[in-house]
Amino acid sequence: FAALRRLEIRTYIDHDLRRGEEIPERLLRAIKDAKLSVIVFSENFAASKWCLDEVVNILECKKRSNQIVVPVFYRVDPAMVRNQIGSYGDAFGKHEQRFEGEMNKVRKWREALTEAANHSGWGCSLNKVEYEIVEGIAKDVMEKLNHVYVGDLDEQIRKFEQLAELQDQYYNAIP
């Protein structure tokens, strides 16, 4: 968060969310409006219904609006996330008991974790210097966002070109 802010990248982090509540509308709006989402998978990530719901929402936005997804595997192997094994398997065992009548929800969470873990991401293990990884992630995000903004600019230019062409056709059609 601090590294992204240092690079003047507008960020949203859910510091003031309370456990047990539904995901607030402002968080869903922040996810929807984002050009890029960084998902930090930690050892206890899958125990949180909120975190799992956020991943589902992020991936829906990726499908709808090509949002960029950058997974960070903080002291967990991507295979744990992808295959829901280890602490992820334990968490899903509990979810399956708790949401016994809502297995569709649990299935969506599983699919979302598998899909997210299949994205190329960043690994942060005990034998790496976290500061260097954080700076690398921040620079990667900056590069990805700069590419997105250039694409947005190209789209705006295309719209202006189309408008100019329509205006030209209109003025040429006037006798």
UniProtKB/TrEMBL annotation:
Coiled-coil intervals, chain numbering: none
Domain TIR positions: 1-145
Pfam families: TIR
Gene Ontology terms: biological process: signal transduction
Alphabetized UniProt keyword annotations: NAD
InterPro entries (alphabetical): TIR_dom, Toll_tir_struct_dom_sf
PANTHER family: DISEASE RESISTANCE PROTEIN (TIR-NBS-LRR CLASS) (PTHR32009:SF155), TMV RESISTANCE PROTEIN N-LIKE (PTHR32009)
Protein name per UniProt: Resistance protein
